[in-house]
Amino acid sequence: MDNKKALNVVIDMVPNWYQAECGYYKNNISIGWDSEVFFTERRLTPLLNKFLITAEDSLPELLRLVKNIPDSMATEIIQESLAKKWLEQHEPRINWSKIFSYNRDLDYRTYENSSISINLLIKIGRGDFDLTDTSHYKIIDPLASNLNVYFEVNEELCYRDYNYISWGEVKESQNYKFLPEFLHPFQGIKDKEDWSIHKTSRGDLVILDKDGLRATKRKGKWTIYDPPTIKNMIVDIIGQSSYWVACNLFEVLLDLSYKRHGALLIYDNLNAMSQFVTNKESLLFNNRNSIDIVRKNMISAIGDIAMGSSQSENIKKRLLIELASMDGAVIYSDNRLKGFGCMIQAHPAVGEATGARTTAALSSYLYGGFAVKVSTDGEITIFFTSRSQDGKTSPAKLSFL
What is the pTM for the complete model shown? Predict the structure, then answer.
């Protein structure tokens, strides 16, 4: 792997780092004489600045380590090493190397022809036997696949308890969250210093602290999260007046991504999109005479979906996610759902975009909507206009798992 590719491997790990012709804050990452520019909407937080410095310091040795290794394998090695350093910044007492090794073991094991899934709650302190000892696998593997069942372990993955989360312990969130909903029950039982590790049946590795997502490994790719910066980036892209849309959108996107439901969500607070929807019957408030009977009767249940609300019950997230799973786009404003299953007319400037959903997303962006695409493999792509401090603009996108 050459230096330029390695630098891009690092940039790709952080969802709110992007490359474009211009941007608000310009940043550099370098190896020797080679460097790559990336942009952010806000200055790097101390945690991300430390990660950037650590990555630059680590890359020369990592590149020597992966010399003559195919790029796909080299990418995984580099990203895993840097993900470990990121997690050590947050909690150095946890044996992250052991967790990563255990995750690789899980990748290659099955139980009754099904992938192994497991939930681990990490509490610093005394532990008993080593949960990762291979002699225990035949007992451990089938025992924590239920969504709310978990093993409590210490920082060395030594057993402390085997337990479950009762329905009474699961509290409905009254605010936005930085994690997919299926992992919400674990946040409610965590103390401030606790972490949880989740291996899903689809092979995703998800690492949470009390604030939400800190790192994931999905489809062989590592992503690290500094949760508030993601929300702030969406706020900066769509404007401060849409603060609650940005807060609520990230959680919806994560839920769709982990469900592996392809979706296209278009924020249209300026009423720019309705003229470019080809199936007018999909629009809830455009023309009551053209709307189909199913949608007409659903308006009372879904029309008031309000992504711009600070109250979780007004978002009706579970209904929104089901609507987004249909073919076509969901179009919404701050305080109502405008349509679902909407087919978007291709914009002349799109060119040869790959796939119907990508074409629709790019077209929506070019028509003036804020378009976010979720692919069926879980990748989230946000199309937006990047602006520099001197007023220049450039098309840009964020893509992450």
Answer: 0.91
